[in-house]
Amino acid sequence: MLKFATSKEQDGKLLQGTGQMPLRADVAGTYPEYFAKNPDYKQFADQAARTVEVPNVPNSIAIWQTFRDAYSKSVIFGQQDPGAALDGAVQKVDQLASGS
């Protein structure tokens, strides 16, 4: 099932249907017809080649939620200075990452 879902053909359908870049080394070269029709997406294809998985570390869900909460509170909702919010998140993330 996984081989089917991540095949070149299925990745092409994902790209065509959603504009979401498949995680492939050469997206633009693999799907040249799509990028000929959608030249503004070439920059995204270039960046997709540098995308990596999120590291799997202990407490990763809590770590990412801490970051998302600080980002949302400060950047999206303007309820706190971004520097202060992210500094506070760093302290909590460091504790979570160390298992404390």
Automatic annotation (TrEMBL):
Q: Please, which domain of life does this record's source organism belong to? A: Bacteria
Q: What keywords were assigned to this record?
A: Signal, Transport
**Entries under SUPFAM superfamilies matching the protein:** Periplasmic binding protein-like II
Concerning its family, UniProt says:
Belongs to the bacterial solute-binding protein 1 family.
Designated name of the protein: Extracellular solute-binding protein
